[in-house]
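Give me structure tokens for this 339-residue protein.
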Amino acid sequence: MPEDDEQWNDGHRAFLQAFMARSTLTLDEAKPLLAAVLTAYERKETLPEDITEADFNAYISAANTRISPFDFEIRSSYHQITRTRIYALVNSTSDPIIQLATVHTAEEISFLKRVLDAMFETYNTQRHEIMAITSMQAVRLHKPSDSERRETQNGAETQGSAGQGLKMVEAEKMLKSLVEEGWFEKSKKGYYSLSPRALMELRGWLIETYNDADDDDDEEEDRIPRIKQCAACKEVVTMVSYFRELHKLSAKDLKGQRCSQRNCPCRLHDICTQNFFRMQRSRNCPLCKTEWTGNDFVGERAAPKANKQGSRRSGGISSANTSRMETDEPTRIEDDGED
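Here you go.
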């Protein structure tokens, strides 16, 4: 390893360049990368298994010191399903919509904003906290609504505001790009949700945008924050997707949980519940003290079963089913028996 007094050298620069090319890294992904950097820099072979977490953290710390004046930072967060720690290079100050505008057109940014609104408003109600969207539901947002067009015509045009919209094929291409760029993840069941990198970079913006209650609307739902944190790990809870085959998880590992009391904001990642309730004297909600059922879900499993069946047939849900999401009682979806 480099000497302790070498605060910044070509090895650090090579590591940072490699990180920037990938946007996100896990420790396992970083080990061969850092081993290759050290082999070239020190002119002696370094194997991936020689790299420790302390070595990796030292390079992260050194990189953060150098990029901080440019409003960049390498942050880390746990994946909501696997709990793997993921490191991401994020912009620490600017509006994320503006960041995306450097590589996407105004129409594409407008489409993205409509998709995010659908994730965190349309498909994020007290009854069904899905916070994800199917391909069909997203593509249907390829053009702005009439109200969006009127706002633009009235002089309210901003970055990401409505224009003529995209063609459906362009919307599909944009969704694919967002996955490739690391902003979205797509589950086996076809739901798009925010990736760990996006949650790290957009966290402040999401809370500011979707947790502000409307002062003129006294409905109870508007007083419940739409962006909620896990009571155990304090990370944002948005989804628990069907990654069973990819991550070798059983059905019980895929249930993001919520308190059975609809007005209680307590949420837990399923993988966090084991240690959390092990330290509690009873299996009760830590906020309202209601018995924790483990059968009330957050994420795509919160979707009404009829909607999920429709998604399997057509890639989306019908408008009739969409309206039912606002009126149906929460659907408790059991394991579907898939391997």
